[in-house]
Design a protein that fits this description.
The complex is a heterodimer of chains A (264) and B (257). Chain A is mostly helical and 264 residues long. Chain A has one domain. Helix content of chain A is 81%, strand content 0%. The radius of gyration of chain A is 19 Å and the shape is globular. The two termini of chain A are 31 Å apart. With 257 residues, chain B is α/β, with parallel strands linked by helices. Chain B has a domain of 67 residues. In chain B, 38% of the residues lie in helices and 25% in strands. Chain B has a six-stranded mixed beta sheet with strand order 6-7-8-3-9-10, with helices on both faces. Chain B has a four-stranded antiparallel beta sheet with strand order 2-1-4-5. The chains are: A mainly alpha (264), B alpha/beta (257). At the A-B interface, helix 1, helix 4 and helix 10 of A face helix 1, strand 6 and helix 3 of B.
Chain lengths: 264, 257
């Protein structure tokens, strides 16, 4: 195995997923339209409360859109392989699990950036939002480092469809919904019942949203953002290897129990 | 060195509170460049055995080696030497045959140009029209999908090919195309290929295999070349050998499973 093989291996997943997106382009248009309308509708809820409220909500919609794509695409790619029955062929191929998962993560990042950028452009035009005074480089850094955490969470979630095609897919959506509830996407976490609040502090999205709002709405500089950036970076650097490890253990379990096969 | 060596291989699954012995203390060896057939009814353990050799299942006991590499401990080395065709052509059905093949090629470190040349060569020999390679797999017949699966396995030039019922459910023309391709591949002077072929079809096993093992309830009940088995049991065909060993018709056993 050389670098060329590893590169080809990672590219395989990006290329394959791109082919699938192209094939189901109609559905892509439907999902994108839904996401755009959803973000606009959420923004409009705050329209009577002033521009700042609109921005507050729109940032939530945008950030959650990007992070949930990362999370969802990674776990979904495993679920899709289980549905099609190709997972055995991917697992049998002479590439490491690291290359396999990195390929899927790479795709999720590219796809997430493209889709979120399209939504952002439409939102900015629709609401006539001005981002003068915002710390855009800071915003980008926060988004990148928090992406790592969601890649790690996506890898952990990918274990669910790996072990059970149908029930695993249900559970992934429940996990995603749980993160949406606790992370203060559209509200401050102090409005949550007291018993839920400790969970909010465990979600990387809580910190991402705070930092993004600070950078975008208050123009917070790098000095102010740094503690959150470091926290997200450390969380991400921990969650990615933990995700890989959990996935590898689940793969071993699936091979021991014969859970990879679809038929035959 | 043998291409495959299995010793005391055991794999048991739990189902509804009871244990099912899918592979029950199987030991055998496959020589290099041999076509080794495993015939048996549905549920007899053929696919489980293939999955263990494919590094997709971890045995409960015993060992399996592919060209000297342990399938559990040295799975990476084993994967570089093998490929597999299963009974159901598993693909991303919404995208084209070529997109599926290109994906597989990348996983095996094959360049796009090389992959295309090899794919078209193999598919051409299997009677697959070139233009159809760009059609979504879901628009192709079962036989054509299986031919793409054959191309996917062969174009990586494996040392050991695991063919798990590759012709089951194919129409007679497609079945013949696949059987002829396997025969041609083994007859090529440059071929260093070893094949393990599982099948329900006794006649296919007689035509393609150098040696055949009959598996029932996870155990090999006999192994030998088709002619050895026929003469050993004094029978004109493998189906009759099966009847002699089990006291039952092949058809009867298949229906039961």
């Amino acid at each position: 195995m050389n670098i060329r093989t590893h590169t080809y291996g990672s590219v395989a997943f990006v290329e394959r997923n791109f082919a699938l997106v192209r094939r189901y382009i109609g559905w892509e248009a439907v999902f994108l339209s839904y996401n755009v309308v959803n973000a606009l509708a959420i923004g409009l809820i705050g329209a009577r409360m002033g521009k700042e409220m609109v921005m507050y909500l729109v940032v939530g919609a945008m950030v959650w859109g990007f992070l949930s794509i990362l999370f969802h695409e990674i776990s979904e790619s495993i679920a899709w392989e289980r549905w099609e029955g190709t997972i055995e062929y991917t697992f049998m191929a002479p590439i490491s699990r690291f290359v396999h998962l990195i390929g899927n993560c790479l795709w999720a990042v590219v796809y997430g950036v493209v889709r979120s950028s399209l939504i952002l452009i439409i939102i900015v035009l629709f609401f006539g939002i001005s981002i003068k005074g915002a710390n855009l480089p800071g915003l980008l850094v926060v988004l990148v480092v928090s992406g790592l955490s969601f890649v790690g969470l996506g890898l952990i979630a990918a274990v669910l469809p790996l072990l059970s095609t149908e029930k695993g897919a249900y559970a992934t959506h429940i996990m995603e919904a749980g993160l949406l509830l606790i992370s203060g996407v559209y509200y401050e976490i102090d409005v949550l019942p007291v018993w839920i609040r400790p969970l909010s502090y465990l979600s990387p999205a809580t910190y991402t949203l705070r930092a993004m709002r600070a950078a975008l709405l208050d123009g917070a500089g790098f000095g102010e953002l740094m503690p959150v950036i470091l926290l997200l970076l450390v969380t991400g650097l921990l969650l990615v290897p933990v995700g890989m490890l959990v996935f590898s253990r689940a793969e071993y379990y699936a091979k021991k129990k014969g859970k990879l096969k679809r038929s035959g | 060195m043998e291409a495959v060596k299995c010793e005391g291989l055991v794999k048991t699954f739990g189902k509804n509170g009871r244990k099912i012995s899918a592979v029950n203390r199987i030991s055998f060896a496959v020589r290099r460049k041999e076509v080794f057939g495993i015939v048996g009814p549905n549920g007899s353990g053929k696919s489980t055995l293939i999955r263990i050799l494919s590094t997709l299942l971890i045995p409960d006991a015993g060992s399996a080696h592919v060209f000297g590499h342990d399938v559990v401990r040295e799975y990476g080395a084993v994967r570089r030497l093998i490929n597999r065709v299963s009974v159901d052509a598993a693909f991303f059905k919404g995208i084209s045959a070529w997109e599926n093949l290109r994906y597989a090629a990348r996983l095996y470190g094959l360049g796009k140009k090389d992959a295309k040349e090899r794919s078209l060569d193999i598919l051409g020999r299997l009677g697959f029209a070139e233009k159809r390679i760009y059609e979504p797999l879901e628009d192709l017949s079962r036989g054509m999908q299986q031919k793409v699966a054959i191309a996917r396995a062969f174009f990586t030039a494996p040392m050991l090919l695991l063919l798990d019922e590759p012709t089951t459910g194919l129409d007679p023309r497609s079945k013949l195309d696949v059987q002829n391709y396997i025969k041609d591949s083994m007859n090529g002077s440059a071929s260093d290929l070893t094949i393990i072929l599982t099948t329900h079809d006794m006649r296919e096993a007689e035509v393609l295999c150098d040696r055949v093992a009959i598996i029932i309830d996870g155990r090999f009940v006999t192994i030998g070349s088709p002619s050895q088995l026929r003469s050993m049991y004094g029978q004109p065909a493998l189906e009759d050998v099966f009847l002699d060993i089990t006291g039952r018709e092949w058809k009867e056993i298949e229906d039961e499973y």
